[in-house]
Amino acid sequence: MSSHILTFQCPDRAGIQAAVATLLFNHKAFLIEVTSHSATNGRFFSRSVFAGDQGAILNIEAIRRDFAELASKFDMEWELVDTSRKVRTVIAVSKFGHCLNDLLHRWQLGVLPVDIRAVVSNHPDMRALTEWHGLPYVHIPVTKETKAEAETAMMRVIEDHDAELLVLARYMQVLSDDLARKMSGRCINIHHSFLPSFKGAKPYHQAHERGVKIIGATAHYVTSDLDEGPIIEQDIERIDHKASPDDMVDIGRDIEARVLARAVRWHAEHRVLQNAGRTVVFR
């Protein structure tokens, strides 16, 4: 059964959800799932999944036309997508392949609803893994002197593959403000959750020296503020004094992989709506 996802946000007021439900009912749509949230800043967020009632074939263009009028009335930002269309994605990676490997595995299993088009990297290390999965691997070396040219080349890959999403799967380069703006709301990063406590090289070794008892990871949208974009997902695991730095690295990699996979999946399923510097995530 063909289904569609409708997401929107707007100033909060009475009657919004009733008006949307009535419009869809009038078009013979059957609501499969409806979630909403009234935020403290006066914004209303909603995600609905619907299909044709009793197998009816929906006139999606008519629904779009009528919803555009409704959206104007309520000052909505909205999107209507077919659930069968997967988000075109490019993945960026450096030398650490745990997140890339996890994403590619989930993608091949069909449990990650994205259409991975290519992998780009500033190192050659992940070529064999990528090409084993039948994907193009674009090696774009980066130095301080060539960073601008490298970002131009990365953007060309994104445009050539008509990618809607860029996933930084432990891509160890800071994106420029310009690239961050171009990919606003379309670029997801993963990092350990020691920030800002332990920056730089070997953060897990720094954490071990301080006797840290919790290891975590954060997936967020990329902005010009380094590692401070709107958070999509986080997770943690407790450890104790027996954990060595190597143990902490292994645990951290597992957390990073699963947190990034959740964030990518929720984005691809249109479950994440941005609310200023925060997110509303309809899990």
Short description, anyone?
This protein is 34% helix and 31% strand.
Q: Which of globular, elongated, flat, extended, rod-shaped describes the shape?
A: globular
Beta strands, count = 13
CATH architecture of the largest domain: 3-Layer(aba) Sandwich
- Rg is 21 Å
Query: Taking strands numbered 1, 2, ... along the chain, how are they ordered across the largest sheet?
Result: 7-6-5-8-9-10-11
User: How much helicity do the residues have?
Assistant: 25-40%
CATH homologous superfamily classification of the largest domain? Formyl transferase, N-terminal domain
- In terms of DSSP E residues, the strand content is 25-35%
Q: Residue ranges: pLDDT <50 for 5 or more in a row?
A: none
Structural class: alpha/beta
CATH class of the largest domain: Alpha Beta
Major sheet description? 7 strands, mixed
Characteristics:
alpha/beta, 31% strand, Rossmann fold, four-stranded antiparallel beta sheet, 2 domains, Alpha-Beta Plaits
What can you tell me about this protein's structure?
Strand 8, helix 6 and strand 9 form a beta-alpha-beta unit. The chain has a seven-stranded mixed sheet, with helices on both faces. The chain has eight helices and 13 strands. The longest helix is centred in the last third of the chain and has 24 residues. The mean pLDDT is 95. The chain has two domains: 80 residues, Alpha-Beta Plaits (2-Layer Sandwich); 195 residues, 3-Layer(aba) Sandwich (Rossmann fold). Helix content is 34%, strand content 31%. The radius of gyration is 21 Å and the shape is globular. It is of the alpha/beta class and 283 residues long.
